Amino acid sequence: MKLGTVIGRVTLSRNVDSLKGGRFLIVSPLSREQFAAGLSAPAGMGKDHSLVVYDDLGADVQQIIGYEEGREAAQPFLQPTPVDAINTALIDEMFYSPWKG
After folding, report:
1. Whole-model pTM?
2. Dihedral sign, CA of 69, 9, 37, 95?
3. CA-based angle 87:94:54, to the nearest 5?
4. Cα 5 to Cα 62: distance, rounded to the nearest angstrom
């Protein structure tokens, strides 16, 4: 699972039946600097790319989420579904303690 900040929403003009009940979010993956800064870090800090994530958990803009990409993103669906990433967790607290070796 990867972590990212929700920076926006996607509005669709059509819907796929297997995707009803969810929505798509624009997510900026967390950088090392954001992990060190914690939940108060600004969205998109240190990153210049984002991705679209399917969400049926109800994440909001500026919230930190956990997401899966690739084949694992389609596993929760009963039929083949066109998703590349899915929201798997809403993050309430985050602790970062890098290893000093």
Report:
1. 0.80
2. negative
3. 10
4. 6
